[in-house]
């Protein structure tokens, strides 16, 4: 298995390691529920170094990259993040991604670990000079209402003026790093992209702060499901279009991109399933693969689900026909007909991610 | 209950006699593997269970698993506290985290189960 720059740090915090897309990553440290609740109350620290990072330089290369994703890129200013995905020729999602401009000439792109080989090839073909920073970069996410205080306390002053859903370059202890104020938890949080050579120093500095707790993939999953964020490989796949994934508002129909014609055909045919947030009536969780029924009739399936510690009930995502996606629709899921209902996204609404600060 | 005196199954249940009834739960190894337990579904009192029959369900954040009757018997009592506080199974698997009690058990049936030493060896091997 591949190991991140922080692999040898896990044991010191009691990390239990599992195989995630070929990476040895911690599923939990002190316990999933405790890590989850700590992230919502204070700050959780996640090693996400398995993810991919690319730097696209120059107007020509950025224009070529624009053809790989369905979101509008030409009007993107320096700073704001954009969420999008790479599609195949059938309009299916190869991988979702986030990108932002560091300058007029530089686009920073973050992708997932699972389909990285395919995405790497796509980017290399479209933008031969793109720099693949995935191996050289460690990614540490600091998430939770205390995350800003934690990073300011370790001297990361560059984060102070950052608004929600923006990214920028800054200096930390003499090293150039990239930070986005974003995350996968619904809380105020920062994603730190640093040279792997300083990963251990940063990890230890952040964990030395009393407000932080190391967190694993388990809590990352419960946090993202409460905030109704899809995971590539679970909820998203090459068989799923962005229309079905609920990303319709992000699709830029007046530009050219791979998969556009197939996507337009799905749009025009209509009547596709929609990724919908679901809640259990009690603490039992809907699980990946559970059949969803309405009055005993099959209508769709659960793509991921778990117990939501902050909601104190089961929570998940399911593909359902549009007429059943209306919040409050009563349905059942799984072999034991677990009672569930659809709900608006995000299922958990008390997240602090949009918190504002005086500059 | 004293883990040293209990009997065990390869599905990680324990069983032990207390006041004429046979108490059943899941082992410390099992709760550790499951992680944070979030929901326990218990059998109804009075239900007749065959040896190896599905008796209860335990859900953790990660997964749902069945709990089986280690021996045949009739459910005499269930641990209602697990409904509101399933984390008792994590905190005290051999005590406050018990699942149900059986009556009408043939004491000789326990001889077919693992003793503490044999279970420890089994669980250690499984973990590797």
Topology:
The complex is a heterodimer of chains A (359) and B (128).
Chain A lengths: L6 H4 L5 E5 L2 E6 L3 H10 L1 E5 L4 E6 L1 H8 L15 E6 L5 E11 L2 E6 L4 H11 L4 E2 L4 E7 L3 H7 L13 E6 L2 E6 L8 E7 L3 H9 L4 E4 L1 H10 L33 H10 L3 E8 L10 E4 L2 E12 L4 E9 L8 E4 L4 E6 L16
Parallel strand pairs in A: 3-13
Antiparallel strand pairs in A: 1-2, 3-9, 4-7, 4-8, 5-6, 6-7, 9-12, 10-11, 11-12, 14-17, 14-19, 15-16, 15-18, 16-17, 18-19
Helix pairs in contact in A: 2-7
Chain B lengths: L6 E2 L4 E6 L2 E6 L1 H7 L2 E5 L6 E2 L4 E7 L3 E5 L4 E6 L2 H4 L3 H4 L8 E4 L12 H11 L2
Antiparallel strand pairs in B: 1-2, 2-3, 3-9, 4-6, 5-8, 6-7, 8-9
Description:
The complex is a heterodimer of chains A (359) and B (128). Helices cover 19% and strands 33% of the residues of chain A. Chain A folds into three domains: 7-51 and 134-226, Gyrase A, domain 2; 53-132, Aminomethyltransferase beta-barrel domains (Alpha-Beta Plaits, 2-Layer Sandwich), CATH 3.30.70.1400; 271-343, Beta Barrel (Elongation Factor Tu (Ef-tu), domain 3). Chain A is of the alpha+beta class. With 128 residues, chain B is an alpha+beta fold. Helix content of chain B is 20%, strand content 34%. Chain B has four helices and nine strands. In chain B, the strands form two sheets. In chain B, strands 1-2-3-9-8-5 form a six-stranded antiparallel beta sheet. Chain B has a three-stranded antiparallel beta sheet with strand order 4-6-7. The A-B interface holds A 28, 31-34, 218, 222, 282-285, 287, 306-307, 309 and B 35-36, 38-39, 41, 59-64, 86.
């Amino acid at each position: 298995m591949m190991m991140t720059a922080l692999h040898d740090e896990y044991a010191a915090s009691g990390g239990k390691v599992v195989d995630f897309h070929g990476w040895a990553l911690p599923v939990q440290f002190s316990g999933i529920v405790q890590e989850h609740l700590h992230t919502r109350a204070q700050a959780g620290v996640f090693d996400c170094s398995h993810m991919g990072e690319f730097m696209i330089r120059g107007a020509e290369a950025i224009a070529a990259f624009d053809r790989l994703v369905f979101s509008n890129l030409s009007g993107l200013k320096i700073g704001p993040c954009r969420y999008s995905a790479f599609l195949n020729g059938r309009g299916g999602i190869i991988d979702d991604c986030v990108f932002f401009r560091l300058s007029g000439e530089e686009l920073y792109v973050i992708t997932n670990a699972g389909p990285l080989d395919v995405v790497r090839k796509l980017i290399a073909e479209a933008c031969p000079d793109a720099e693949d920073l995935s191996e050289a970069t460690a990614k540490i996410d600091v998430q939770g209402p205390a995350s800003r205080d934690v990073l300011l306390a370790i001297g990361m002053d560059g984060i102070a003026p950052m608004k929600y859903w923006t990214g920028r370059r800054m200096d930390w202890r003499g090293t150039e790093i990239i930070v986005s104020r974003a995350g996968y938890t619904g809380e105020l949080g920062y994603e730190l992209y640093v040279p792997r050579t300083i990963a251990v120093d940063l990890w230890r500095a952040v964990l030395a702060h009393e407000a932080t707790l190391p967190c694993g993939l388990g809590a990352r999953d419960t946090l993202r499901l409460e905030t109704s964020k899809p995971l590539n490989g679970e909820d998203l796949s090459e068989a799923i279009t962005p229309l079905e994934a609920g990303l319709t508002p992000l699709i830029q129909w007046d530009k050219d991109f791979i998969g556009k014609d197939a996507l337009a055909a799905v749009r025009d045919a209509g009547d596709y399933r929609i990724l919908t947030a679901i809640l259990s009536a009690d603490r039992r969780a809907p699980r990946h693969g559970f059949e969803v029924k309405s009055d005993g009739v099959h209508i769709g399936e659960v793509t991921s689900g778990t117990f939501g510690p902050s909601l104190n009930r089961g929570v998940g995502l399911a593909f359902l026909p549009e007429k059943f996606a209306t919040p409050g629709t009563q349905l059942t899921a799984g072999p034991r007909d677990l009672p569930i209902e659809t709900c608006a996204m995000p299922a958990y609404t008390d997240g602090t991610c949009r918190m504002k600060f005086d500059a | 209950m004293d883990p040293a005196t209990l009997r065990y199954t390869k599905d990680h249940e324990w069983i032990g006699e207390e006041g004429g009834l046979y108490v059943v739960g899941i082992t410390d190894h099992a709760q550790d593997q499951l992680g944070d337990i979030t929901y326990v579904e218990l059998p109804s009192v009075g239900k007749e269970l065959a040896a190896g029959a599905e008796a209860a369900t335990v859900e953790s954040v990660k997964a749902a698993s069945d709990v089986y009757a280690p021996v045949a018997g009739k459910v005499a009592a269930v641990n209602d506290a697990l409904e509101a506080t399933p984390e008792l199974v994590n905190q005290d698997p051999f005590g406050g985290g018990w699942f149900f009690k059986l009556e009408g058990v043939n004491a000789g049936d326990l001889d077919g189960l693992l003793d503490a030493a044999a279970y420890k060896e089994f669980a250690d091997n499984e973990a590797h």
